[in-house]
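Narrative of accomplishments. A recurring question from our advisory board has been how the design workflow behaves on a single, concrete structure rather than in aggregate. To address it, we present the structure tokens for one chain from the evaluation set, followed by the sequence designed for it. No filtering or post-editing was applied between the two.
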């Protein structure tokens, strides 16, 4: 490639967990998130206690894997969108700060699983901010959820056997449902496939 040629555009992220780019169609969205049972809430809160002790490091691991495996997601982060090296990402104070924010938001959800109105309010704020202010495509929440579940299962195998992973998958589905509801509420418009 000569210096004057521009590099090819990045390819769109692969389909993950059945989500395609720009997909938030009201008709495709279930009427409500599947509720968690009391036992499932207890499992989530118990396992989260082990994870949250190391919340910043876990959050950094999640974000690094997310950005390495789905580099198109970095377009929303001007402060570290040009970072390619995972070690450089790990040293980034800005990435660490965002990792803490992600983990603290999830902590608020987990701590309030017995208060569905609080969970709805928190996730509506997250969804609206990402839709209106940051203009992040909602599919990235599903991708990030999947990456988070992978990291938790790998880093905490003693606390995340298959049965626990299934409960956490249900929680992440509910998180995605609430966030996409906020996107729909603010009139999110799909962007063209050339944006990613």
């Amino acid at each position: 490639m000569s210096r004057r040629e521009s590099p090819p555009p990045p390819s769109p992220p692969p389909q993950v967990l059945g989500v395609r780019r720009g997909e938030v169609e009201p008709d495709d969205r279930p009427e409500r998130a599947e509720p968690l049972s009391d036992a499932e809430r207890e499992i989530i809160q118990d396992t989260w206690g082990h994870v949250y002790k190391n919340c910043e490091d876990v959050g950094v691991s999640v974000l690094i894997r997310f950005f390495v495996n789905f580099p198109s997601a970095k377009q929303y982060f001007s402060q570290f969108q040009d970072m390619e090296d995972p070690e450089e990402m790990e040293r980034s104070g800005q990435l660490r700060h965002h990792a803490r924010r992600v983990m603290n938001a999830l902590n608020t959800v987990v701590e309030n699983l017995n208060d569905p109105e609080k969970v709805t309010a928190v996730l509506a704020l997250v969804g609206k901010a990402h839709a209106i202010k940051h203009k992040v495509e909602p599919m990235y929440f599903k991708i990030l959820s999947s990456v988070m579940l992978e990291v938790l299962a790998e880093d905490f195998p003693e606390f995340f056997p298959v049965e626990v992973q299934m409960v956490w998958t249900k929680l992440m589905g509910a998180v995605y449902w609430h966030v996409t509801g906020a996107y729909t509420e603010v009139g999110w418009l799909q962007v063209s496939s050339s944006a990613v």
